[in-house]
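Cross-posting from the modeling subforum.

Setting up a comparison between two proteins and wanted a second pair of eyes on the formatting. Protein 1 (sequence, then structure tokens):
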Amino acid sequence: MSNAIKRLERMRANPRDNWRVGEVEAVCAAFELDVRTPKGGGSHITVSHPSQRQILTIPAKRPIKPVYIRNFVRFVEAVRKNIDGN
């Protein structure tokens, strides 16, 4: 989990870096987020969690634009906050 936290901190500090879908999926796996990858020509992955009403969509193209990384960081933080109860 510490690698995922470090990667999430790097995403927060530098959303303009060339982030790829695999890195987003690795963070999702560490925080037990549900990820659906495109099948049959889809162009976005979807990220969800039972504690959140929102479903996040992220383009599967690389590099991922900074706005999507910022939204992803906010989404993960909301999940962590809800789980930790802080």
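Protein 2 (same layout):
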Amino acid sequence: MDYIHEHEYLSEGDMVIVNCSHQCNVMLTDDANYQRYRRGEQFEGYGGFFEILPAEVPVPYTGYWNITIDLAGGRANINYSIDFLKRN
């Protein structure tokens, strides 16, 4: 599985902002669900498929989060950025 991944400690109420040159899936998962995602198993996360970017995904609770960007099976050379709007 090809995707972009970043691991970050975030607080409840922070916002993950992803900009990408292509429509894509943007997912925010905790560590256990990220491992399921990596294995191709069913997982729970926040976000989804975004046709219009930037994608903004709110952080539901404080902890370590995995931010993934994938092109839903497609391949392309993409330009992207992952930014965080911290509430404090």
